[in-house]
């Protein structure tokens, strides 16, 4: 009987859902009619399945609020990711700079050291030349500005002298009258 | 919108999986964060609900496995304090029955728990569950049968 109970127990769930074949259903029903223990199990299972629908709950208000903020948080995270400078790239750039310094300031590899010095020399020459060009441009700019402002200043000076002269004239007139 | 459509389902999976409202809230939030962060990876030809349920299931199982010690200790403590003494929060009989049922579900194996929640609480069909998790329908059926049997037996043991 116990052996049969074990077998029937495994079928009760399917029996409740009408998932068994006709023959199996009849077999289970016959056993349930004869075995109070399995019948109690079946009734208890039915009772539990009925209660299961009560386990659904609405989402709490505070959680809904938290969930509605997620799109903003994840959006900011993605934006931050775009700006983020990859670590491997930083490490690679750092290593390259370190090695360049090593080759330039030490004589471990003389040929590389020579190459680097000549390269730096050509860069310096280029910088000096371009500096010269900039100086020339600056000078011509200054010259232009000087001409423009100087002219303007002389005009304003002439105007001022004229007005002063007129004012003195007026004052001297008034002095005579008084 | 995504949250309006799926938050209840995800929250109820987590709530009945862990039988703890605070953990369920945290897990639901984590799941949605994961979903938003991985939306780009989701391929449109796939079923979105299935993808979401798979993420939820995997996350719940992972979370449970990571904190297994904590959960098992809690379950032992629950047994000692006895489910027959309802806490002040569980005033009505119905509430205490629900809490007890959740606790019993939370003691099932994680894989059994998930399918039971989806079938008997969320009311999904065997086919739907099988399609969502890409497992054979027969496996779903046998897991649900086992879960129901274990759950019922645990209640009967408690009554004896």
Describe the structure.
The complex is a heterodimer of chains A (178) and B (160). Chain A is mainly alpha-helical and 178 residues long. Chain A has helices at 2-16, 22-34, 36-52, 61-83, 87-105, 110-177. Chain B has 160 residues and is mostly helical. Chain B is built from eight helices and no strands. Classes of the chains: A mainly alpha (178), B mainly alpha (160).
Write the layout of secondary structure elements.
The complex is a heterodimer of chains A (178) and B (160).
Chain A: H1 2-16, H2 22-34, H3 36-52, H4 61-83, H5 87-105, H6 110-177
Chain B: H1 2-18, H2 21-37, H3 48-66, H4 68-81, H5 93-106, H6 110-121, H7 126-133, H8 137-159
Quick summary:
In chain A, 87% of the residues lie in helices and 0% in strands. By secondary structure, chain A is mostly helical.
Q: Roughly how many Å apart are the termini of chain A?
A: 146 Å
Radius of gyration of chain A: 49 Å
**H-E string of chain A:** HHHHHH
Q: Give a short account of the largest sheet of chain A.
A: none
Q: Strand fraction band of chain B?
A: under 5%
Query: Any low-confidence stretches of chain B, pLDDT <50, length ≥5?
Result: none
Oligomeric grouping of the chains: heterodimer
User: Roughly how much helix do the residues of chain A carry, as a percent range?
Assistant: over 70%
Largest interface, C-beta within 8 A? A-B, 33 and 36 residues
Strand content of chain A: under 5%
Number of helices of chain B: 8
The description of the largest β-sheet of chain B is: none
H/E element order of chain B? HHHHHHHH
Tell me the total number of β-strands of chain A. 0
Helix content of chain B: over 70%
Number of strands of chain B: 0
Distance between the termini of chain B: 48 Å
Q: Based on CA inertia axes, which overall geometry of chain B fits?
A: globular
Uncertain runs of chain A with pLDDT below 50, 5 residues or more? Answer: none
């Amino acid at each position: 009987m116990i052996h049969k109970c074990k077998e029937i127990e495994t079928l009760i769930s399917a029996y409740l859902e009408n998932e068994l074949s006709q023959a199996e259903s009849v077999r289970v029903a016959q056993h349930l009619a004869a075995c109070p223990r399995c019948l109690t199990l079946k009734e208890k299972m039915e009772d539990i399945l009925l209660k299961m629908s009560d386990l659904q709950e609405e989402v709490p208000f505070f959680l809904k609020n938290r969930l509605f903020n997620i799109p903003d948080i994840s959006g900011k995270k993605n934006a931050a990711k775009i700006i983020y400078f990859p670590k491997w790239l930083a490490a690679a750039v750092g290593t390259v700079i370190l090695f360049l310094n090593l080759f330039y300031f030490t004589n471990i590899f003389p040929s590389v050291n020579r190459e680097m010095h000549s390269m730096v020399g050509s860069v310096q020459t280029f910088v000096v030349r371009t500096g010269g060009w900039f100086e020339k441009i600056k000078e011509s700019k200054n010259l232009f500005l000087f001409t423009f402002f100087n002219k303007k200043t002389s005009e304003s000076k002439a105007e001022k002298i004229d007005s002063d002269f007129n004012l003195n004239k007026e004052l001297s007139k008034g002095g005579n009258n008084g | 919108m995504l949250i309006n459509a799926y938050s209840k389902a995800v929250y109820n999976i987590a709530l009945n999986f862990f039988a703890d409202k605070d953990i369920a809230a945290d897990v639901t939030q984590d799941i949605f964060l994961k979903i938003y962060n991985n939306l780009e990876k989701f391929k449109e030809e796939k079923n979105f609900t299935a993808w979401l349920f798979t993420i939820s299931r995997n996350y719940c199982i992972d979370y449970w496995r990571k904190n297994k010690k904590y959960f098992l200790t809690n379950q032992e403590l629950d047994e000692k304090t006895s489910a027959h003494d309802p806490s002040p929060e569980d005033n009505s009989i119905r509430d205490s029955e629900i809490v007890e049922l959740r606790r019993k579900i939370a003691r099932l194996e994680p894989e059994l728990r998930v399918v039971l929640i989806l079938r008997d609480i969320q009311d999904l069909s065997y086919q739907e569950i099988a399609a969502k998790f890409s497992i054979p329908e027969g496996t779903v059926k046998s897991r649900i049968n086992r879960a129901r049997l274990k759950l019922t037996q645990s209640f009967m043991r408690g009554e004896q």
